[in-house]
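Much of what follows relies on a compact textual record of a protein's fold. The record below shows the convention in full:
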Amino acid sequence: MGSLLQHKLPVIDLRKEHLKPGTGSWKDARNHVVSALQQYGCFVAVYDGVSQDLHAAVFQALEDLFALPTSTKMQNKSSKPLYGYVGQIPFLPLYESMGIDDANTLHGIHTFSDLMWPNGHHAFSETMLSYSRMVAELEQGVARMVFEEYGVEKYYESHLKSATYLCRVMKYRAAEEEESNMGFVAHTDKSFMTVIHQNQIDGLEIKAKDGQWFSVELAPSSFVVMAGDATLAWSNGRIHSPQHRVSMNGKEARYSVAQFTFMEGTVKAPEELVDEEHPLQFKPFDHLEFLDFYSKPENRRLESALRTYCGI
């Protein structure tokens, strides 16, 4: 057999000192970020906005949260499709998650924590709010790099104004002897961007463009920044939205946090990104309406829900 290319996600230094627009290190990072998003649809960011203490506090908070009774966790409901509690699914027995809408706002965090702990849980609220705001800062830096690299930075401010954040907290328990180790099925994210952080248990696997699956190993100070289907459409096909899944191989539970960016209103490719070489691939679409379409069981199995929904 010929040797298979061993895929490995690019690791990019996005510590705060490199996130100052206009500096040499910013331009250098910007170039690496966009080429990684075009090749893999994601990369590993080394980011110091979340301190070691905050990292430890977040995963302690998640252990407290998932220890609550299932009936309490199931109170996490939303009028938005796919925003609330997900769990107790027969073919995904290892997985359970909850969504905190507007997680970077005090209101969003309190709306969630007051449901879980009617007497309040100050430490949880404070920890998750700090975390969400720091991760939003990382995501905004990456989005700005993408807008600049494509020469459409004039749209960045309005993009920023319409961005909202859903923080999804997840627990994957270890598989028992007879169980499959599938933590979560292969899918693409429906967000604009997703930032994933985990405790020290790996499990995330990415599908490369050549069809090969490979696993991602993460250090505590690193985050996976991933483009979702909305970026695929916005970039008119330039940026890849990767299939990914979770496999559980050890004996310990994996906790992770994924912060999704969703756009209020319409997602459409800037006219500057449409030309003879790059004819328009997707019709403009409303982000939450697309999520609603995808939430229907029959549409979850589609090869590409986005192309079916608004492809040209």
Summary: The chain is about 35% helix and 20% strand.
